[in-house]
């Protein structure tokens, strides 16, 4: 329940029931708003004509009033004076929620066509309130608000009778600032919104670089860091999912920012559909960062009395480099975004049938695999694609979520019971949003797909997408999935989504609302996920979309973990895990030991390397056929025992990127509390005359002693951090194994070291 504490021009009060200190948000008598905590400060004020002028985002300021003097309101040639106020132009004024057409020519946060048919909106400050906690965003996932305060500032366009309420949430113990907006039409005419961003951030002129994560199928999360150009740089999706092509994440950095130091302004969007994060460098070098729903191909008709809610944008500022940025994201995602039920839960090890059997599945085969899975010590059998009526390949049956009677004569619930009777958990694959042309569901409801009249729908992987903008479609899916989950014998659901949206249109909405359908689809999807996860909080959901084609915080709000990529080959996957770790805690990721040669890129790799590349993912498993399982039974048993014994450590700890060059990766993971430290090192190609490499570990207790379990050697924390942990050295003819310092020279080298805090030397 929210508790309005102060309204118009009120300032902070005493500590609150929620334990949020009173000074997370203060407002001075001259209308300067100061937000922040020990991690950051954020300041803006009400300037002339009621414009919200941004003053500061960066380190916390002892004296926020000093930020009030930053911007010079100097007349410049070519400038236009906003509303005739002398020397006052919005052309280069840093703003909180800019509009277009009244002296500011940069991209606006809000744009559209008003009831008079023009696109001029002018927003003026009206009032504000500060509440403890954080209101939920109606219909959308959002971060939980415990330990926070929220400032809501209301702006109004009096002529167009449009009201914008900007929300800013600051947490006592996180460096994340949450922003969102609500747009309300209180006039008599409809307004067509075309651009309605969740946040705008106007940063001062400086040299910026941009770090972002791009990719493709089986190549997600490739990092790129480039100087921010003059003009516009944006990453976006118009595919209907957040997409593998650009993960919704941008960090603006200074050219000297490293893992360990330097300023970072990072942004993400808690949303799973079409998004844009754009940075525009103005003629004077200042940068406007806009984050929200992609305006391309988007329109929202706001009728009188209606409200539009933007998704939530999240921002992190740190002066301490990328490592600290990731730490902020990781802690926040774990504490405030991911489902609570799994926050501290070790994830079960599993055997997934996909790369083991593909569609070649029968009840007997699954039960035999379950026996093998149990023999090598995994906790859960996951029945992937291919179990439902007529599904022999990817050309049919999506939508008909009933067991194939020929191959699963006892049905899925009975199979689940039999698997559970063997002492395993049972997981099941669904692709709820999709439908095959060859399916009963499509025959019964041909208009339940996304489509536009008169055009042949394009097929992706031979399938179509259900129209989740229609409430009856969502209700149908709730009923079907709830039927399975209510049985109480499904422990895990792999929720897949294997195509993008084309011919996006809906038979459920009138013509003038067709461009609303992609966003309405997301609202339908979120209702579906919210209902199922509320009813079945203890079912572990894994998010998948052909791997990482929809890996974002919107999905991770409902699902504790995700399949970040279909590339199961370990060397190629290193970049994917490394890139994902900038934003996502590896608690949210899964990995398995797949076949070799690998089915996606044909590369051979040792079973140890396959295991180690995925070691830091919380959910570890296997996807191997019977003969492979038999051949490698002893090794798999050892590896799964290792996965099991470290499963608890793999949630809630800190992951650090220690080394990355194109040929070498070193990662560190310290368990919560820091008693166990794991270090993985990978060298892609062997080299001659290699250096003696060391990993400079981070975040250890400098005074404490750590025992290297593989070598028996003991080190002081300070020595591991400042002098470094010796890494393996490749030597021709060496017979040392992977854990020794001296290892045979070869490609695809991988080692995993465990350090345990001990009492003394
Ligand atoms: C997608 C997923 C895979 C697998 C298949 C099944 O490609 O990413 O993991 O589940 O679908 O069809």
Describe this structure in words.
This protein has 761 residues and is an alpha+beta fold. The strands form 8 sheets. Strands 1, 7, 8, 9, 10, 12, 13, 15, 16, 20 and 21 form an 11-stranded antiparallel sheet that branches. The chain has an 8-stranded parallel sheet with strand order 29-28-27-24-23-22-31-30. Strands 6, 11, 14, 17, 18 and 19 form a 6-stranded antiparallel sheet that branches. Helix 6 packs parallel to helix 7 (517-535) and helix 9 packs parallel to helix 10. The relative contact order is 0.09. Residues 1-20 have low confidence and may be disordered. The site of alpha-D-galactopyranose (GLA) has 11 residues, from loops.
The biggest sheet amounts to: 11 strands, antiparallel
Specify the helix fraction band.
Answer: 10-25%
As a percent range, the share of strand residues is: 25-35%
Head-to-tail CA distance between termini: 53 Å
- Helix count, per DSSP? 13
User: What are the distinct ligands in this entry?
Assistant: alpha-D-galactopyranose
> What is the overall shape?
globular
The total of beta strands comes to: 41
Helical/strand content category? alpha+beta
Radius of gyration: 27 Å
Question: What is the average per-residue confidence, as pLDDT, rounded to a whole number?
Answer: 95
Low-confidence stretches: 1-20
